[in-house]
């Protein structure tokens, strides 16, 4: 396995763990602590997902350094379905990382439950890791 494949497998495993964390945060009573944890889980999942996309592009000989460029190129090459949707995720990741207030937290939480979780699950299914990784007990995920 080459270095790119090792990095991709490593990021896929980390994304699985972050996704599991995000799902656990959504399965407890909704309050401000749970919402803050869900927003943190969203930020982690998004960061890992765009970096995984960038690695996949690089493996194919394509360059995209920023999250926005990575999203646009990933949509162009068919790694993701909707650049617009992912750009909205990027917008909320940027806002939630640098600004925290109740309204933004609720909007981000709504985005997570209405579209992000489904999209990240779809992306993970379409870029499933090798079978040996999926069968490893530490990395099984419903996400």
Would you identify the regions where 5 or more consecutive residues have pLDDT less than 50? 129-142
Oligomeric assembly:
single chain
Mean pLDDT: 87
The count of strands amounts to 0
Structural class comes to: mainly alpha
Gyration radius from CA atoms, angstroms: 15 Å
Q: How is the main sheet built?
A: none
- Quickly give the CATH architecture: Up-down Bundle
Query: Which range best describes the helical content: under 10%, 10-25%, 25-40%, 40-55%, 55-70% or over 70%?
Result: over 70%
Globular, elongated, flat, extended or rod-shaped: what is the shape? globular
Residues in β-strands, percent = under 5%
Q: Looking at CATH, which topology would you report?
A: Four Helix Bundle (Hemerythrin (Met), subunit A)
- Report the CATH superfamily: Nucleotidyltransferases  domain 2
Number of helices: 6
The rounded distance between the terminal residues' Cα atoms is 26 Å
Count of the domains: 1
CATH top level class name: Mainly Alpha
Task: Report on this structure.
This protein is mainly α and 143 residues long. It has one domain: Up-down Bundle (Four Helix Bundle (Hemerythrin (Met), subunit A)). The protein is built from six helices and no strands. It has helices at residues 3-26, 32-59, 67-77, 83-98, 102-126, 131-134. Helix 2 (32-59) packs parallel to helix 5. It starts with a helix and ends in a 9-residue tail after the last helix. Mean pLDDT is 87; it is low at 129-142.
